[in-house]
Amino acid sequence: GLFIVDIADPAAPVLVGSAPELSAWGGIVVMAPDRLLVADFNFGLYDVDISDPAAPAIRARQRLTGGADDIARHGDDLWVANNYAGVTRLALSDGGEQLRPTGRWFVDQAAFAVAPGSEAVWIVGNDGLISIDPASPSMPRTVGTLPSPGLLVRAAIADGRIATVSSWNIDRRALHVLQDGAPLEPLGATPLGPFFNIDTPGDALALSNGVAWVPAGGYGIVGYDLRNPAAIRRLTGWRDDHALVIESLVVRDGRAVGLSERNEVVVLDVSDPVRPVVIGRTTVRRGEPASLAVV
Length: 295
Description:
mainly beta
């Protein structure tokens, strides 16, 4: 389902509305303060009106071949990872009210996640990280591929750099940093761990002020300093917190908002990345966690 939580008072988050018929497993993009695009990996995209947060309503539907495993916005374009159906680009038209498909790229592996950059679009596939030229939808050109010892699951871009994280095989979990552009240029990497097997880390990754934040299973969230990518440094100390197993994560202006495996929305102060502090939390519903966005 889709759940709307008011975090105006971060110490006391409040559930204000929901649309249980929606699935947000493929991610959420904020289009405007009163409008969301929700990605359903089985169907495609839902355009949702949240002008009344207590009663979110579907405005339009966009079926996509392969569904929508991930969604990202870059200017007036939306990029959607369609699993084995490749990657779709949609353009915003009519003042941003309509979505119009403008290209599709087929790659030789499943596309799990997508991160559009300044010169290339980065695709997280089941065999590694791929960058493609966004100018050639009819004849897609692979710029490069980053092999990884574990399965890459998420990518994020900030300040001209891209970071990607591997997961699922937690013994080989790692964080990679690359230059955003072509040709593909790895800058550094670091292993992530150790983690508790009983608290498998979520597949989230957030970049903010030169710090990469990743879930760390039973250790909550952990920040890594990327300012010198050749020597990535862990900032956050290990601290057991089995009640804070984060699956989805957004970091902005010294605050982190996470969705835990218990379906709790958790607000943290991360202004000091050495010691993240929980400010408030609330349960939205018991069940499987999915995606998170902050309006």
